[in-house]
Design goal:
Blueprint (H helix, E strand, L loop, with lengths): L1 H15 L2 E5 L10 H17 L3 E4 L9 H11 L2 E5 L5 H12 L4 E6 L13 E4 L5 H22 L26 H30 L10 H17 L12 H8 L12 H16 L1
Parallel strand pairs: 1-2, 1-3, 3-4, 4-5
Length: 287
């Protein structure tokens, strides 16, 4: 019984902790592997825990939804966000820019191999060694934990000077909230899911077509390729199809081209050869 009480208390304490958002690289970049960034994430998480926070990537959420929406919402909502701009990852710099545009407190980190960026150089950067030497990292964790606490406390004061306030007076827009019924929410999520499935199916068809391209007949002459390409261009210009419809294997495109007067079908030995030729033109010139 005692063990259960301790476990329940620990769980309750974890749930009550505020969240420290993390913005950082997560995949290989600038010679650093994904496991290197996992180690860096662990260091930031330990420092946040010392400061009394639970650290999470801003892309993490208990809710299901579009990841970009989740990121923007968390960048706006989290009390404090730690951004590691090491290796100058484009996504990280963009998300840091959003956090600063929201006029919310942020802590910027970088390793000792990354140079300062002009636009963010006025912001204090906490620096750590890229080789993650133990003794230096232990000191760094203490500094980061202290910085998290100090930044949050400073941001609560009326005279707090954020990044934007150094440049003048700005009216910062907030995120609009919208109340919807559970049925509307489910319908919205189903539509998003359908869109994702449709996109994945299209990507899969395209990937399979690229893999099978080596098996496609190479009988298509330059004149025939030009003829098919011109017909596809005319379908796009007429508005009958858009670029998102141009997936190899799309039967609707084959059907529309079969009706097109600008194609001499005698150039193709069989309907199958014609379809393969259309796929080849799509992959070469439109995708």
């Amino acid at each position: 019984m005692a063990k259960k009480t301790i476990s329940d208390n620990a769980k309750k304490e974890s749930l009550e902790k505020p969240t420290c958002g993390i913005v950082m690289p997560i995949s290989e970049i600038d010679g650093c592997s994904s496991s290197h960034w996992q180690d860096v994430r662990g260091i930031i998480a330990e420092a946040a825990e010392i400061a009394g926070y639970e650290a999470k990537l801003v892309s993490e959420s208990d809710d299901i939804g579009v990841i970009q929406t989740r990121i923007v919402q968390n960048l706006y909502d989290h009390e404090i966000v730690v951004c590691d701009v090491s290796a100058k990852n484009a996504n990280v710099m963009f998300e840091l820019g959003l956090r600063l545009a929201f006029d919310k407190p942020a802590i910027v980190l970088k390793d000792d191999k990354t140079s300062y960026s002009f636009d963010t150089s006025p912001i204090e950067h906490l620096e750590y060694p890229r080789d993650l030497r133990y003794t230096t990292i232990e000191d760094f964790k203490k500094k980061l934990a202290s910085k998290i606490k100090a930044t949050v406390e400073a941001a609560k004061k009326s005279d707090y000077k954020s990044f934007l306030k150094h440049f003048g007076k700005f009216e910062v827009s907030g995120l609009q909230t919208e109340e919807i019924s559970s049925q509307e929410y489910l319908l919205k999520e189903i539509k998003l899911l359908q869109h994702d499935i449709s996109r994945m199916s299209s990507d899969l068809r395209r990937t399979n077509s690229i893999r099978n391209l080596s098996n496609i007949s190479r009988e298509l002459s330059p004149n025939s390729a030009s003829m098919v390409r011109k017909a596809i261009s005319e379908l796009l210009q007429s508005g009958e199809f858009s670029h998102k419809d141009l997936a190899p294997g799309n039967q609707e495109i084959y059907a529309a081209l079969f009706k097109h007067n600008g194609i001499d079908f005698e150039k193709f030995s069989t309907p199958k050869k014609f379809e393969e030729s259309v796929d080849e033109v799509l992959l070469r010139y439109f995708l």
